[in-house]
Amino acid sequence: MIDLFSRNRKYANCIEVFEKMRVAGYFPASNVIDLVLNAFGKLREFEKADALYREMQEEGCVFSDEVHFQMLSLYGARKDFKMVEALFKRLMCDPNINKKELHLVVASIYERSNRLNDASRIMNKMNERGILKS
């Protein structure tokens, strides 16, 4: 249902169904959280997205890389580059994250915000660590 609402750009309905699922006690899959975070972003409700992300982490939800990347994009969309950097550093310590994709996502966030020095810095880190070759 959430996937259907998301594909049809009914973001408010997507969030409503998710909230009803949570009240009923359902523990969402990682891809559902990704869709709901995207819906919050489309509706420019960044604080709610951040609260959901943190709440799900506290409940022990294991996220796919895409969920983390979605949250990075939301931080970038609201121009909260301190949070982008903080999450980037935290994810760099996580052995389960695809480091190449992580660097590319963060560099593209900076590039979209016309922060080319930061984008270049991230790409240089990727080169220094030999991640580009993998």
UniProtKB/TrEMBL annotation:
InterPro entries associated with the record: PPR_rpt (IPR002885), TPR-like_helical_dom_sf (IPR011990)
Superkingdom of source: Eukaryota
Keyword annotations from UniProtKB, A to Z: Repeat
Swiss-Prot/TrEMBL PPR repeat ranges: 29-63
Entry annotated with the keyword Repeat: yes
PROSITE patterns in UniProt: PPR (PS51375)
Key word Repeat present: yes
Family of this protein: Belongs to the PPR family. P subfamily.
Matches recorded under PANTHER family: OS03G0856100 PROTEIN (PTHR47447), OS12G0638900 PROTEIN (PTHR47447:SF17)
Protein name: Pentatricopeptide repeat-containing protein
